[in-house]
Design a protein that fits this description.
With 322 residues, the protein is an alpha/beta fold. The protein folds into 2 domains: 135 residues, 3-Layer(aba) Sandwich (Rossmann fold); 167 residues, Rossmann fold (3-Layer(aba) Sandwich). The strands form 2 sheets. It has a 6-stranded parallel sheet, sandwiched between helices. It has a 5-stranded parallel sheet with strand order 3-2-1-4-5, with helices on both faces. The N and C termini lie far apart (48 Å).
């Protein structure tokens, strides 16, 4: 069998976006079983790709590391396909350093701006981010298989999760990178109290600094775990309730049904749950969307898009999922 293509894929961040590249990786491996695939990512997200059989090697960019140093570890002359799934200032600099021909994801910036600032939908179709990535890899002749993203916890990760969280718990994800994407902490507490009175076991996941968002009686503390151990906790859930966040996408990567609380962003941007049963709770407000990725403050000061999603509404969604 002739050797497969050597492929370089760049997606530095963030968590959810890196997770959503995995259907493309799976498709490349299926179409080109002998492909040699190198994935470039920020070091903090490398755990998402660990153990993935579709990836031969992961090249990481450490905090503060110059791009030139990363470029020196890569050999542009050896790649048959180079794919930029980030399309950012940083990835453009890396492309210049490496040279050659690149497939680049179309982030549809003008359509986003038209929707945010003018309220006009200029998207020809609402394409999931997963499938936007496939467009950038057109030279490899791959197609989505319709299955969700994937991540590969180890046996130790699964054992650690089992020691913390019972099978069939409702797992809550109160954090998000941007403040406007977060459901109010009082709403999370109200949801937890209501679910606990129904006899459901609850756990909360997130980073160490997200612990103050939800804790206390009736909520198992599973904060601060490594990414793949967190994925193992999510896999034990009967349903996951989450803000629009990287951990929401991680939940889809272990095949769990999700309930997503969506505020400043909308489906047109491409980041709805992909490939799993999902309920998306949102409000049809004239001020939505206000940003493609969230922000520190509501531009109008009211944050109605999240505040108006009531805990009782989420309880009903959990009951439907269960």
């Amino acid at each position: 069998m002739p050797p497969g293509p050597r492929v370089l894929i760049v997606r530095f961040s963030s968590l959810g976006d890196v997770v959503l590249t995995t259907p493309l990786l799976r498709a490349i491996r299926a179409r080109h079983p002998e492909a040699d695939i190198t994935f470039v990512v920020r070091s903090r997200y490398a755990d998402v790709l660990a153990g993935n059989p579709a990836v031969n090697r992961v090249a990481t960019l450490a905090p503060g590391e110059p791009l030139r140093a990363l470029a020196k570890r890569l050999d542009p002359a050896t790649y048959d396909a180079q794919i930029d799934l980030q399309s950012s200032a940083r990835s453009r600099r890396l492309r210049r350093l490496l040279g050659g021909t690149w497939g680049v994801v179309d982030r549809r910036r003008w359509a986003r701006l038209a929707l945010i600032w003018l309220g006009i939908d200029r998207y020809h179709r609402h394409l999931p981010a997963v499938e936007q990535f496939f467009e950038a890899a057109g030279a490899l002749d791959v197609r989505p298989d319709g299955r969700p993203a994937e991540v590969f916890p180890t046996a130790d990760d699964e054992a650690r999760a089992a020691a913390l969280v019972p099978e069939g718990a409702v797992v809550l994800v109160p954090g998000a990178r941007s403040a406007t994407k977060r459901w109010p902490a009082a709403h999370w507490r109200g949801l937890a109290d209501r679910l606990a009175t129904r006899g459901l076991r609850l756990a909360a996941v997130g980073s160490e600094d997200e612990r103050p968002l939800l804790g206390g009686p009736g909520v198992i503390d599973a904060y601060g775990l490594p990414l793949r151990a967190t994925a193992a906790v999510l896999r034990r859930a009967r349903v996951v309730v989450a803000n629009d966040s990287g951990l929401m996408h991680l939940a889809t990567a272990v095949g769990r049904p999700v309930i997503v609380l969506l505020g400043p962003t909308v489906k047109a941007f491409g980041y709805y749950p992909y490939g799993v049963p999902a309920q998306v709770l949102e409000r049809a407000l004239s001020c939505r969307p206000c940003t493609p990725s969230g922000s520190n403050h509501c531009p109008l000061g009211h944050h109605r898009c999240m505040i108006e999603i009531a805990p009782d509404e989420v309880v009903k969604a959990v009951e439907r999922a269960a």
